[in-house]
Amino acid sequence: MLQYSTAMVQTVLSETDERFELPKIRAEKVDFHYGSFHALKDVNIAMPSHRVTALIGPSGCGKSTFLRCINRMNDLIDGSKLTGKLLVDGSDIYAPGVDPVALRKHIGMVFQKPNPFPMSIYDNIAYGPRIHGIRKKAELDIIVERCLSKSFLWNEVKDKLSQSALALSGGQQQRLCIARTMAVDPQVILMDEPCSALDPVATMRIEDLIAELKTQFTIVIVTHNMQQAQRAADYTAFFMLGELVEFNTTREMFLNPQEKRTMDYISGRFG
Amino acid sequence: MLRAFVLGIPILIVIYYVVIGLLPFAQRRKARHAATLVLGGAAVVLALIPLVLLITHLVREGWGGLSLDFFTQDQKPIGQTGGGMRHAIIGSLIIVGMASCIGIPVGVLAGIYLAEVGKGKFAATIRFLSEVLTGLPSIIAGILGYTLIVMRYNQFSAIAGAVALAILMIPVITRVTEEAILLVPKSMREASYGLGSSQTQTVIKVVLPAARSAILTGIVLAVARVGGETAPLLLTAVGQSTLQTDVTKSMAALPLSIYLNANQPFDSSQQLAVTGALFLVLWIAFVNLTISAIAAKTRPRLS
Ligand SMILES: Nc1ncnc2c1ncn2[C@@H]1O[C@H](COP(=O)(O)OP(=O)(O)O)[C@@H](O)[C@H]1O
Ligand SMILES: [Mg+2]
């Protein structure tokens, strides 16, 4: 069996509550439609700053949809519509006048399947900073090294920065994608099942990385894996059929679920 | 020959099913595989026959005429021997070059528009029109060039020819570009948007580079195809027997000169025509091969 040493110890120790600390992302009466399909129903939640919040629930319950509302990635889908309020640091990101392009600089995203650009490792990391106007090679060099080091990738790739990112293994690619996200200095990192395409060892390294990153970022992670939620997340939100059923510290959620549906789900009665 | 064809195919099909039916069940898959290979191979050979015949004919008749004179001399007055196709080669380069200057940017931009914005009535109309235009008989493009330019200025001209060729190029390039862009995986776009880039930045820095080799291939095919067109030029650039580089006047072009010379009853004219045809075929083959080699080398792998 694998030993999920660091990540596990960390979660067991950090079962914060204080009635959910400092909220970073707050949803108030959020409803979301894909055309006529009602994908999120009256979601109310407050996710604390500098913590890892896991979104769990049976597949198709709207976890990804909710995650993609937070950086307005769903804006790209025709006929989609959000009502209600989604606040980041107290300001509504769906208010008129908010530019989703500018918003996404502050709310980064890591996808289910590692999706490095077909460019060199260096250019992958430098892509975001370049977009945002950093041109100086020296400055970019520093960012590239810093982000790769933070994602525990520097030692593995420092001698082949100019090689194609596509030559890396799946796990390395995913850490590269995390590094690429960090390079634009976001406040929030959204991760949509970032380990589902990875083997257990690579998964463990990403979980270690997540534990490290929350000192600097607020992290929201979708996972279909309840062990992963328990290992990696301080807080857990359980979704079903587009509704938020329950939100609590991960510990409370798994030891002492308040709702019967949560209990059924975490004990594996459906899923 | 034709009768053998018409009768042969149904007979083959019947034989195929009879033989398969007679075989024990376990051997049928292998037999089907073998039959497919044989029939497929035969079809390839059949398809290649006309091509091989054409090329051997061109090489046999035309090779002898491929001399230095062919590239350095203009056509001699009708009936005199010798001469070359310099005027026509240069004319073709000028006309096709001008057509490319119009057709490539318009086609590529239209393709980007259709792929990236491409919703609503306006885009649907453009897409429909470009599909219709793809099948446009080339003589119609010639008539368009004639009506738009020649009639307005009362003068046959290389410009009119270039416009006619551009009209043929644009829909092809538009479609190739749109398709190449739509093939770029959604995950690439999302990665870029997720880092806070705008649609323009995403298109320029991620989508177009990923689609580049497909778009380039399409462009070259369109240019090469247009380089061999005769009909649109008949009504526009008309042709010249000497070197002429003023684009507001009628100008020679390789396919035109081939056509005009082939219609002359003189051996030397016909020699020029067949050598010109050989040169055109070699040139187009060369361009295609080069491009596929470059495309194969530079094609970015998409995860
Ligand atoms: N682009 C889309 N258009 C229409 N329906 C969608 C789209 N994306 C997701 N859905 C639907 O929304 C529901 C929630 O999907 P999703 O958020 O991806 O679920 P999860 O991530 O929890 O598995 C599903 O029923 C899915 O079919
Ligand atoms: Mg999902």
Brief digest:
The complex is a heterodimer of chains A (271) and B (303). With 271 residues, chain A is an alpha/beta fold.
Using brief descriptors, characterize the structure shown.
heterodimer, A: 271 residues, alpha/beta, Rossmann fold, 4-stranded antiparallel sheet, 11 helices, 10 strands, 37% helix, globular, disordered N terminus, B: 303 residues, mainly alpha, MetI-like fold, 2 domains, 12 helices, flat, binds adenosine-5'-diphosphate, binds magnesium ion
SSE topology sketch:
The complex is a heterodimer of chains A (271) and B (303).
Chain A: H1 5-13, E1 23-34, E2 37-48, E3 52-56, H2 63-70, E4 80-88, E5 91-92, H3 100-106, E6 107-110, H4 121-131, H5 137-150, H6 154-157, H7 170-182, E7 188-192, H8 200-213, E8 218-222, H9 226-232, E9 235-240, E10 243-249, H10 250-255, H11 260-266
Chain B: H1 2-22, H2 25-62, H3 68-72, H4 86-116, H5 120-134, H6 138-153, H7 158-182, H8 186-194, H9 199-227, H10 231-234, H11 254-262, H12 267-298
